[in-house]
Amino acid sequence: MPKIVGFTLDGKPCQAVAGTRLLAAAAENGVYIPSLCNYPGIPPKGSCRICTVKINGRLATACTSIVLADMEVQAITPELEEFRASVVEILFAEGNHLCPSCEKSGRCELQALAYRYRMTTPRFSYVFPKRGVEAWHPKILKDHNRCILCKRCIRGIRNESGKTLFAFGRRGDRLVINIDPETSRDVSDELVRQAAEMCPVGAILVKGKGFDEPIGLRRFDRRPIGSDVTQ
Amino acid sequence: MGRTIPAVIEHYHRDPSRLMDILIDIQWERGCLSEWTIDQIAKILDIPRVDVEQTVSFYHFFSKEPRGKYTVYLNDSVVAGFAGRDAVRRAFEEAAGCPFGSVSPDRLIGLFDTACIGMSDQEPAALINEQVFPGLTPEKARRLVEGMRAGLNVEELKGADYGDGQNANPLVRSLVHNNIRRTGDVIFTSYAPGRSLHKIVGMTPQQVIAVVSSSTHRGRGGAGFPTGLKWELARKAPGDVKYVFCNADEGEPGTFKDRVILTEFPMLVFEGMAVAGYAVGARKGILYLRNEYRYLRGYLEHTLDDMRRLGFLGPLVAGKAGFEFDVKIQFGAGSYVCGEESALIESAEGKRGEPRDRPPFPVARGYLQKPTVVNNVETLCAVVKIVLNGGAWYTAMGTRESKGTKVISVSGDCRKPGVYEIAWGFTVNDILRMVEADDVQAVQVGGPSGSCIGPKEFDRVLAYEDLATGGSIIVIGAGRDLVKDVVLNFARFFREESCGSCVPCRALTAMSQAVLEKIVAGRGARSDLQAFRGWAGIMQKNRCGLGQTALNPIVTTLKNFPGVYEALVPEGEGPLNRGFDLQAAVADYKAVTQ
User: Fold this and answer.
1) CATH number at residue B171
2) Are B206 and B333 in contact (CB under 8 A)?
3) Which of B117, B144, B176 delimits the end of a domain?
4) Fewest beta carbons less than 10 Å away: which of A33, A113, B119, B128?
5) What is the per-residue pLDDT for B482?
6) What residues of chain B, 521 to 540, have a C-beta less than 8 Å from chain A?
7) Which of A45, A90, A180 lies nearest to residue B507, judging by beta carbons?
8) Please, is A185 exposed, middle or buried when counting C-beta atoms within 10 Å of its C-beta (0-12, 13-18, 19+)?
9) Same fold, A4-76 and A85-208
């Protein structure tokens, strides 16, 4: 029998199996804590900081924190929601995100969060960085303008020999994600599809596939991000 | 040219976790880590090429292109700027015939900027092929370049005017000076090597930890975590294999006290590591040493050999069966964030210096996922003395919450920069008197990640409960342009050093540098100042201390010196973006259409 622990989330008593990460535990209890770099099934990284909560008064990311008995968690507060909105705006200002012409529009988690926070324009100056689009690979298109460096692809995509296809390069605001020419050489269509699916934005795309879903039927057209948890 | 690439990798047993050592050796022997080299390393280690590339591209001292037969790294710290760095920089450029950030056309001389190299009391200072050249002047720069053109080797370029103390040791032969201005009762006192080891073998590990805990000693690197508690947690962590790290990365600008401790008392440091090993059950110690202190390598290796001969390290420390402990040296390669304990561990594992998510903390899962204690150089020295003299001896010194002494490194606008060991409890005024500083505008306590305070606060006390510092104290005289010469320098530093993992850190360090530059250029607005205040709250949510404190220089000076900003930014222009130049923005269009 798995051990169950009790904790409170914004005052609401909740339960989870011991050892569950807080983000998942909240979802199991019907509470959506916004997140972006987290992805079910791969180790969390706490990069985007969006899922920041207060645990017993101290700041922590919900994706990396393991639920412990009697934890008091504050997740949806005006201060934390304001912070999350700021991070979303920072991401829009940091890259070159042109939604109208993007293949991921309507399915993009960054865009969906921007809708959640009713962003009209970021309160940060646009950086307009000079970034490129990598098209040398026969199957993968990498648009660095849209990449939010969430590291999902690095953490989650492995070829048949268990080797990574993606890795960081450089550091700071010059950070970039590189594709390995060797390990990606014979990548299967399925793995490329998984990578594109895993990418929260339109930075990794399957070549030859454009706008394949009508507006109105895309993932976030019907329901806002997080509604699958709260319902 | 040195060894072949396979030979270097074989030397490190083809272990991918030794990637830092492999890259450092090849960078040194070949002058660069070319694309071909990266391919070879990836192939032999059987890891993806991008995994080698990610480490190569992270560290400042790794380069894909050659950096000249003589590679000059001139540090660009605030104090170097005070001491005339700009003129030295220009002199190097004129003499070498190339701008900084490039190599001379004859490929002889490479000129590069680098962050504070731990020589703030003897600026302007540069590294040339890993040797330190302190106290530079434009004339010295010109003569150095002449020497390079005449084919002198670095030893000949250095000359023989070695510094004091062990800087003149034949294994060091450095021009660096210790400038120990004041010795205290804990670190800079006479010391008979090995005595603490002979004492602890008559105690249990728990008793050793109890003594350290009773002293209430707190880590001396800046974070101030209770040392006894850290050791207790590591001791209790399950597992047979544990590690002790000495954090000698000393990257906080204006800090140079660990350099002096390592120069004058290396055995004391290593003995402290052995004490820690005994206490927590670790058999292996690693000294993580910043690359800028590589000139101490031969001397430190020799010290370790001496200690092995004396039975202070090795399979039978102080003759006690089961007390096995040895130390190896792991170099960094130019990254301030690697002073953060979890980033340091990542680096020691051959990876990028990206801090880890905690929990779990290193004491539970650290180096190679084993329980690991990471302690500062000064901490490890203090514990030796605490073991010898007892906790009560230690708590008799200092303030109510900060016991013992602190070694501080003071630099900037003062007559006696250098290293001082003081009991906690000195006021800033006491320190300014001690270092002979007059007409002080501001003091940066704790480096850029600390705070910038003005005369109204000079009666505050150096203590964890008031003004904490890892050691760095920078005196800023009346004539200095606080925003341009200090705050902007710090902002550029954090921007350069952010690992990039967290969104707010990498973005806002870059954005705040851009806004500050706009303000210094006279195109700022009051709304920019308001924005900074809001950004401070965002930065609190970053994963590590770098991100959490990166806006401190701006925020503390905004709070304590609002006038200097208001003078740069006119009132009443509303949200108008004075940084926007309309003519420049339409220049391309005009060129095409007219």
Assistant:
1) 3.40.30.10
2) no
3) B176
4) B128
5) 98
6) 531, 537-538, 540
7) A90
8) exposed
9) no
CB B543, CB B357: distance < 8 Å: yes
Beta-bridge partners for A142? A134, A204
Residues of chain B with pLDDT under 70: 1, 573-576
Q: Where are the beta strands (DSSP E) in chain A?
A: 4-9, 12-17, 52-55, 58-61, 72-74, 133-134, 140-143, 166-169, 176-179, 204-206
**Is-contact B410 B302, C-beta < 8 A?**
no
Closest-approach residue (CA) in chain A for B497: A172
What lies within 8 Å, CB to CB, of B82 at 6+ separation is B123, B412, B413, B477, B480, B485
pLDDT tens digit sequence for A40-76: 999 999 999 999 999 999 999 999 999 999 999 999 9
| Residue B345: both structure tokens together | 């561990």
CATH label of the domain that carries residue B415: 3.10.20.600
Cβ neighbors of B522 (< 8 A, separation 6 or more) are: B568
Please report, as a single letter, which amino acid is at residue A1. M
Options 1.20.120.1200, 3.30.70.20, 3.40.50.300, 1.20.910.10; CATH for A85-208 is: 3.30.70.20
- Helix axis angle for B526-539 and A78-94, nearest 10°, is 110
pLDDT in tens, A102-149: 999 999 999 999 999 999 989 999 999 999 999 999 999 999 999 999
Is B588 a domain residue? no
Report CB contact under 8 Å: B511, A124. Answer: yes
Handedness of CA B458, B464, B468, B472 (dihedral sign): positive
- Identify from A173, A176, A177, A185 which residue to disrupt to test chain B contact, counting B C-beta atoms within 10 A and taking the largest count: A173
Angle at A92 between CA A91 and CA A94, to 5 degrees: 60
B488 by Cβ neighbours in 10 Å (0-12 / 13-18 / 19+) ranks as buried
Would you identify the CATH topology of the domain A4-76? Ubiquitin-like (UB roll) (3.10.20)
Same-domain status, B258 and B198:
yes
Question: Nearest Cβ partner of B541 from A59, A169, A173?
Answer: A59
| Domain end (from B477, B492, B522) | B477
The residue of chain B with its CA nearest to that of A60 is B541
> How close B537 gets to chain A, by Cα (Å)?
8
| Alpha helices, H only, B326-401 | 341-348, 377-389, 391-395
Where residue B398 falls (left for φ over 0; alpha for ψ -120 to 50; beta otherwise) is left
H/E stretch holding B420 reads strand B418-423
Residue B322 in contact with partner chain A when CB distance is under 8 A: no
Residues B119 and B221 in one domain: no
The domain of B14 spans 5-56
Going A161 to A162 to A165 to A170, the CA torsion angle's sign is negative
Rounded Cα distance between A166 and A181, Å, is: 10
Residues B99 and B247 reside in one and the same domain: no
Are B293 and B420 members of one domain? no
β-strands A176-179, B102-103 pairing: unpaired
Q: Verify that B235 and B380 share a domain, yes or no.
A: yes
Same domain, B311 and B353: yes
Please give the tally of structural domains in chain B: 5
Convert the pLDDT of each residue in B549-562 to its tens digit.
999 999 999 999 99
Q: What are phi and psi of A204, to 5 degrees?
A: -115, 120
B62 assigned to some structural domain: no
Among chain A residues, CA nearest to B351: A168
Q: What angle do CA A176, B289, B122 make, to 5 degrees?
A: 100
Residue B50 touches chain A, beta carbons under 8 Å: yes
